[in-house]
Structures are given as structure tokens and as C-alpha cells.
Amino acid sequence: xxxxxxxxxxxxxxxxxxxxxxxxxxxxxxxxxxxxxxxxxxxxxxxxxxxxxxxxxxxxxxxxxxxxxxxxxxxxxxxxxxxxxxxxxxxxxxxxxxxxxxxxxxxxxxxxxxxxxxxxxxxxxxxxxxxxxxxxxxxxxxxxxxxxxxxxxxxxxxxxxxxxxxxxxxxxxxxxxxxxxxxxxxxxxxxxxxxxxxxxxxxxxxxxxxxxxxxxxxxxxxxxxxxxxxxxxxxxxxxxxxxxxxxxxxxxxxxxxxxxxxxxxxxxxxxxxxxxxxxxxxxxxxxxxxxxxxxxxxxxxxxxxxxxxxxxxxxxxxxxxxxxxxxxxxxxxxxxxxxxxxxxxxxxxxxxxxxxxxxxxxxxxxxxx
Length: 369
Prior knowledge:
The protein has about 375 residues and is α+β, with helices and mostly antiparallel strands. The chain has helices at about 1-25, 25-55, 65-140, 150-180, 190-200, 205-210, 230-245, 280-285, 295-300, 305-315; strands at about 185-190, 210-215, 225, 250-260, 265-275, 320-325, 330-340, 360. Strands 1, 2, 3, 4, 5, 6, 7 and 8 form an eight-stranded mixed beta sheet that branches. A hairpin with a 2-residue loop joins strand 4 (about 250-260) and strand 5. Helix 3 runs antiparallel to helix 4 (about 150-180). The model is unreliable at about 360-369 (pLDDT under 50).
């Protein structure tokens, strides 16, 4: 089986080389040369076989028989090879035409994607500038004397503005990822502290909802590693935010673990909740842009359905992925994995030991970490 695979792979390489040569050569010269090559090979093969059989069977032939046999082989080869080569070359031309059309379509799609990205970048800048002004003035008004009704209206203005800013950032991130303009910036970072601080940002929201927010650290997690902290925090924040949003009661648990992989690490951040859960038929399309579990999600909980799509693409850029296991009414478990390089030790600097093992729980009545 393995030998067959190797043979098939080599055959595909030969076919690709044949296509390249056919694409660069003159059609008439290529066809005539191919036909003459087949005729010559057929005549040579017939001559070798004739000599071999005549020697093996020890029979004498008349002087003109050998030449007649070779000539007959050449004529048969011409009769068979000519239509076969012409038909084969027509197929080659069809393949080359399709490849050319695909190349042009890809170039047009790339140009369209880049134009879309530039348009979105310009529009996001144009929208953000006045929006920042609105949010700034809202903050100024917040420090003045206001009635309860005015303060509530101001709060709604601020929340709506922040939501719009988030949507703009998500759409721009997605368009940049699609055209490959997102670049990673790995650096030496405190892995456990950064993960804990990211989870801690959602302590207030968890407390408001009466949820327990738990953070666990495996004993094998390195203190420092080299990775893109901004993108990791973006992915983790999205997963924790979703878990809190869709968990009406119970607990959200974030677990950090690591497995040695070559000269680096494979880091895993698991976000598990006791929330609504997700039906199996919905799980696959959940990672597509603008997709949510059902049409009522956006009306009830808000959001655009971009967060998971962006987070998964970022995780894949970092050499990992985001996986999901879930059951309706039993909660969900998202696992973010990414690759990180081992950080060289810095003996001249002292670091406080990281806390491992026991979970730290955020309850409604408990303070943050």
C-alpha cells in the first residue's frame, strides 16, 4: 500500500511537469514530437521483442521480414498515437484553461478582499473618531450632577457606544485575517499571571450573575513562555465572556495546562460552564462568521456571531485550535490550544512563585483574587 502511494505521488509529479512543459511549448511542435516519440518507442520495442523471441525460439527469418515487422509496428503506432495524442492535448488545453481561469479568479478575489479590507479600515477610522468623541463627552457628563433618569440614559449611551466599538473591531479583525494581514508578535510573557488577570476581568460580571468563577492551574505549566499575549487574551476573553453570558446559574471554570512539545509547549486553556449547552447540529456552524446558535440569541443576549470565528482563526494562526464539546442543558466546554516557545531563564531577576493547584473562586459575596 505504501509503495502504491509513493508510485501515485511520483506519477502526479510527472504529470505536473508534463503540464508545465505543455503550457510553455508550441502546440504543433509538442504534438508532433510526442507522436514521433511514441512511434520510435513502439518500433524500438517491437525490434527488441522480435530479436528476443527469434533467439529464444531459434527460428530463422527472411531478410525483409524484420524490417516489415518494425515498419508495421510504426504504422500501427502512428494510427493509434495520433488521435490519442490530439485528444490528450485537448484535455491538457482544457486543464490549462481551467487553471488559468482559477488563477484569474483568485487574483480578482484577492484584489476584492484587499479593497474590502482597506474600505473597512477607512470606515472604521471614520466611525471611531466621532464615536470616541461621543463616548468622551458621555464620560464628562457622568461627572456632573445628573438625575437618576439622566444617569441611566447616559449609561445606555456608553454601553451602546462600547458595543459599536467592539463590532467595528471584530469586523476589521475578520477582514484582516481573511487576507492574511494579521501578524503575530510573540514575546516572553508570564503565562499564568496573564491568564489569571484575563479571567479576573470578568469577576464583576460573574458576581452580578451569581456565578462562581474558578481558575485552575496545572502543576506542569511553565511560569514564562514566548507567545502573542494580545491574541491569547483576546481569544480567552471571548470564551470566558460567552460562558458567563450563556450560564444563568452555576459555575464557569477556566483550566490552564501545558504539554511539552519539542523545544516548546502546547498550551491549553479550557473554559467549561454549566450553562445552556449547544445542540450537536449547531456546533459545527457555530465557528462560522455571523453564526449563532439560533435567531433568538442576538435579540436576547446581543452579539454579532463574530467572536468565535475570529478566535478560532487566531488560534489556528498560533498553531492551535478551538474545540467544543457540549450537550443541551448540560453546559459547554471550549478548549483553546496554541503553541508557545520555551522562555529562556533569567537568573538575575527574582519572581514571586506562581500559585498552582487549588482553585480560586469568585463568588457574589467574595472579593476578587
